[in-house]
Amino acid sequence: GRIPVPDRQSTATHCPYCALQCGTHLRHSDGVTTVQPSDFPTNQGGLCTKGWTAPSLLDTASRLRSPLVRGPDGELAPSDWDTALDVVSDRIARIRDEHGPDAVGVFGGGGLTNEKAYLLGKFARVALGTSQIDYNGRFCMSSAAVAGTAAFGVDRGLPFPVTDLGQAETILLAGANPAETMPPLMRHLSRAKLIVIDPRRTRTAESAALHLQPVPGTDLALALGLLHLTVTEGLLDKDYLAERTTGFEDAWERALSWWPERVERVTGVPVAEQREAVHMLGAAERAYVLTGRGAEQHSKGTDTVAAFIDLALALGLPGREGSGYGCLTGQSNGQGGRELGQKADQLPGYRSITDPEARARIAEVWGVAPEALPGPGRSAYELFDALGTAGGPRALLVFDSNPAVSAPRSDRVTERLASLDLLVVADFVPSETAQLADVVLPVTQWAEEEGTMTNLEGRVLRRRRLLSPPPEVRSDLDILHGLAVRLGEPGHRFPTEPREVFAELRRATMGGKADYSGITYDRLDAGEALHWPCPLLPESRAPHPGTPRLFLDRFAHPDGRARFAAVDHRAPAETTDDAYPLYATTGRVLAQYQTGAQTRRVPELNEAVPEPFVEIHPDTAERAGLRHDDRAAVISARGRTVARVRLDGSLRTDTVFLPFHFPGDGRANLITNTVLDPQSKMPEFKVCAVRIEPISEP
Ligand code: SF4
Question: Where is the 4Fe-4S Mo/W bis-MGD-type domain (predicted)?
Fold first, then answer.
């Protein structure tokens, strides 16, 4: 790899991976970049193995170092920037002229800085004039975003600082495994009694006081059962209900029939454990209900999260200091990514793209007519499924995402990507999606750029530059500027300086739900802890201190009350039968992140978990003729993936588990179901029906 050139000797910044955004000190000396954890509140001096090894991403041997353009021979070949950007803009212009603006799509990522996410949304709507933009957060916490907005009027992953969790006596974790996905979070949970809901006995479940192990796809029934017991065991907070909520009666009407024995029949969770869970929550002075991907990645993910929020409301937790409900957002900037305009249905400031007032406000900031702004576009999977089809996009620009591995039916998505007239990928490594591209644009990464990120508690953080990027590598902001100008936009509309973009972003979010207008780089650099909303106040007043805790006085609905949701259980889209007798569920491991495009390139991480595996109960394995370490095919109605067998006696005998971090024929998403949650458009990653068979070693 190259020897990185330091801009300075050291800097304070944050880990590039997950939404905990652990604070770090980066140092460069004698040609080596090293990282040390800082005592930032979310990590308090801790880091996980991904954070410790992050510097090796900076000079990974497979780093993209110049633009690549696919030539007539079908091969990607190095090019210069002018040629690459000319190729992209010429082809976009041609496709747009022939098929209209919606023939060009954009797909963003939850790892982009706030500045990049904002400018990408503006680029799509203004420079391309397309409605076809979405981002990979759709596959992450979109169900919690919909349910949280419906309940509280606004969704912020944690509407309180992470450190508040340290005071809790009981914490219910529904479908979250932070001991592997964000280990430093566990130090905030160590004083609480944990109740973990997960079909697997994860590392988090091992540390829990109580582990409820439902059949995959039945979490909603379990949440309704816990609400039922909260009422029948006399734990309902009636004063809170009367003062701060509406809609309990309708929710109760649905939960009424979910008596404990019925819940046990459907979920497999014994009545005694259900009862113990509600009493642990009900007896606590301070308690939290937290959801993760396990509750959210279902065709009924929104309703499942809504049912857990109902449970928290029934216990009187949200909006009380030291108690509450929250969603553990996964990606580094999943929070900022979803509120700054990358989503198909959103404009910056967490504004709806169909709201006339919001459209007028954003159009004014962008200097265009409101009617020139496109309407809502397709959600992530709908977008991929439409690529190259009649009426679907014929070109796609992908920033910071790897849908060839992360999307359900990834074989079909790969075919669709390959069928496009133009696929452009901006990334710093040759991801599986980049390998399919017509043009690959090499971009800067975390320690080579300035900007801001918004972590899982809605706190805006500074990402700082330590090193110069390799000479032929550019920021995504430069790329958007270069393309916009070639497409006829005035250059000043697409600034390349992060500070300048942030200044515009502040104006765009002013008055929105996620208001950043009072936040400046200078305030962040001075060490202020600024959680949105943080509105700009008149100069005569002291600056707004930000809002670490939302909802203490009122929820964000016009009447100030939280809304119960009336939801009912339904089976997963696919249930087991003779042909596919097992449930497959997918998830993550400590040593890998997302599709592994980055972490598979870090030697220590790759050695820890180098290949796809499938966890299976020994009895189930024996019935299938499988032993530990065998290679197995896991087959669903849609496809087949190959993985190494890991026996795990703590797993349910009806369930197998596969991590989704691996490419090729080991992609877990070759078997997952494309059915979508009707509200959030989240695919059902967490449950599909499969069988498992031995295969001979190659
Ligand atoms: Fe990085 Fe998340 Fe690990 Fe912290 S927990 S070091 S932010 S990956």
Answer: 8-60
